[in-house]
């Protein structure tokens, strides 16, 4: 029985024959077709090598799940420094999304960032409110009494 041969392609070696192969370790003597490659000397052979890429390493995290600091983010955005509070809201949403995917390491990093942005917003808000209070005190004790009606 002769096998049907495919038309030759330029990207593959031309002389590939199949010969019966008997597994010597097997108690059963079935024959299996194996591929034998007879290379031709002036024939171009194409080799594909996989490029190195990102290998996803799963780290095991054994601690408690990180907090999202959503309340801190929203309150500091409303009452303190809005740009830093907005960054804190974005990071707290990243925590929620990462926990939904099961990526605890990314959630922990985003949680730390949300907490830092929230505290920075709170600090800026306290500083700005203190500065406004000092300016108002100076305004009403020095500038307003000097006005002549």
UniProtKB/TrEMBL annotation:
Whichever gene encodes this chain, its name is: LOC136091504
Identification of the protein by name: Proline rich transmembrane protein 1B-like
State the family named in the UniProt similarity comment for this chain: Belongs to the CD225/Dispanin family.
InterPro entries noted in UniProt: CD225/Dispanin, CD225/Dispanin_fam
State the source organism's domain of life. Answer: Eukaryota
Which UniProt keyword terms apply here?
Membrane, Transmembrane, Transmembrane helix
Pfam assignment, any one = CD225
- The answer to whether keyword Metal-binding applies is no
